[in-house]
Design brief:
The complex is a heterodimer of chains A (178) and B (233). Chain A is mostly helical. Chain A folds into two domains: 93 residues, Rna Polymerase Sigma Factor, Chain: A; 80 residues, Orthogonal Bundle (Arc Repressor Mutant, subunit A), CATH 1.10.10. Chain A has eight helices and no strands. Chain B is built from seven helices and nine strands; from the N terminus they run H-H-H-H-H-H-H-E-E-E-E-E-E-E-E-E. With 233 residues, chain B is an alpha+beta fold. The longest helix of chain B is centred in the first third of the chain and has 14 residues. Chain B has a domain of 110 residues: Immunoglobulin-like, CATH 2.60.40. Chain B is 30% helix and 22% strand. The chains are: A mainly alpha (178), B alpha+beta (233). Chains A and B meet through helix 2, helix 3, helix 4, helix 5 and helix 6 of A and helix 1, helix 3, helix 4, helix 6 and helix 7 of B.
Chain lengths: 178, 233
């Protein structure tokens, strides 16, 4: 077997309208994107709708992927996340009740990631945040929790949540950019 | 406040702004390249987080749906043209950058307008922008009474790794930035005050991602067109 095409190759070919490259791209990335979408939309039918929207968007925008702004998988993952969050907001405009706690420390993806370096830096910087700040940022970004949902879960006023988020983001930025 | 605007950009990417704040920031992204750059920065900082989420087995049959939704039948005969229309660089930016529905036309009901919308027939001037007088790439309409400008991409070609920025040149004045090209579909800008009596040209230049760093066009102008008054009122 000759060398597998890279995700960047597949994305490039998809941008040129190559359907078999697009099918390969789906085969190689859909499990990752589905994991991300399910975090935000645990309801299976909505998660599937979001996946469809995301891959349609990927098909239409592949030609404009810009390698200087991140790895292909990060680009694809971001599209899936944003589509899922939009759908979540449309379907649950008033937020939702979820009783699962913050379990983000348990995340370990054993697969070596192409953006391992960026990820390691981000993890190191997240580790330096206070527990509450870290949990809020993770719950918002990975689960799509709104400020109201975060306030309700932690039992703090929204103003407090906002200032924790700002402090967390500012420290994260200083750590990552510094 | 610089810090404050950075935090709003951070919260926008994080998704914790409330609906009104999000809409207002999304509108600002249409005209403020600095804010777009901040959003892109936050996106780059936070996106690697997504990769720590474990994979999940994909339901059988999902590919069939997606294949149909993007296949030649669904996408019509003029697929290539459609793809180019949508695949503007701005689209790539905003696909990455935005999780705000305000920027996209979609099935969601539009947010309640904060100001009354100017009637569509109130457009008093229109420009068809093309390269070298070819077929129009985008249409721009402007209603001086309401200060509302509409930007309607017709066949905009993307430039990989670049943003397309809109400029207005009024009379002999220096080009003034109007904003970045919308993701896809039409966009409206409000409170844009231009003297309809002046000779106005609208132009699109190729800029670094996020827009011209200098406030003046730095790249080649790929489309331009003169505003033509439709009616005297």
């Amino acid at each position: 077997m000759s060398a597998e095409p890279s995700l960047a190759d597949l994305l490039l070919a998809t941008g040129e309208g190559d359907r078999s490259a697009y099918a390969d791209l789906y085969a190689r990335t859909s499990a990752k994107l589905y994991g991300i979408v399910l975090r935000i939309l645990p309801e299976r039918s909505m998660a599937e709708d979001a996946m469809q929207d995301a891959y349609v968007k990927i098909w239409h925008n592949a030609a404009a992927y810009d390698a200087s702004r991140g790895s292909p998988i990060t680009w694809l993952a971001t599209i899936a996340r944003n589509v899922a969050i939009d759908l979540h907001r449309r379907e649950h405009p008033a937020g939702r009740q979820r009783d699962d706690g913050f379990d983000f420390e348990l995340f370990v993806d054993p697969a070596p990631a192409p953006s391992a370096e960026a990820m390691a830096a981000l993890r190191a910087c997240l580790d330096r945040l206070d527990d509450d700040q870290r949990s809020l940022i993770l719950a918002a970004y990975l689960r799509g929790d709104s400020r109201e949902e975060l306030a309700a879960r932690l039992g703090h006023p929204m103003g407090t949540i906002k200032s924790w988020l700002h402090r967390g983001l500012a420290r994260l930025k200083a750590c990552l950019d510094g | 406040m610089v810090d404050d605007s950075r935090m709003i950009a951070g919260e926008y990417v994080l998704g914790t702004l409330d609906a009104a704040e999000r809409r207002s920031f999304a509108r600002r992204l249409l005209t403020d390249p600095q804010a777009v750059a901040e959003v892109a920065g936050w996106q780059e900082r936070l996106a690697p987080l997504l990769l720590i989420v474990p994979e999940a087995p994909v339901p059988v049959g999902l590919w069939t749906r997606i294949d149909k939704a993007t296949g030649p039948i669904a996408a019509n005969d003029n697929k290539r043209i459609g793809r180019w229309q949508m695949a503007t660089v701005a689209a790539a930016m905003v696909a990455l950058v935005s999780s705000g529905i305000a920027l996209r036309p979609g099935p969601a009901p539009p947010p309640a307008p904060i100001t009354a919308e100017a009637p569509r027939q109130g457009a008093q001037a229109v420009a068809a922008l093309s390269s070298d007088g070819g077929s129009p790439a985008l249409l721009v309409t402007y209603d001086a009474a309401s200060g509302r400008m509409r930007v309607i991409p017709v066949n905009v070609r993307s430039k990989a790794g670049r943003s397309l920025e809109l400029w207005v040149i009024a009379g002999k004045a220096a080009p003034k930035s109007i904003g970045l090209m919308p993701e896809h579909g039409p966009a409206a800008l409000d409170k844009l005050h231009m003297d309809p009596g002046l000779d106005m040209t609208i132009a699109v230049s190729v800029e670094p991602v996020g827009g011209s760093p200098t406030g003046a066009p730095t790249g080649p102008v790929i489309y331009s067109g003169r505003m033509i008054a439709l009616s005297k009122s």
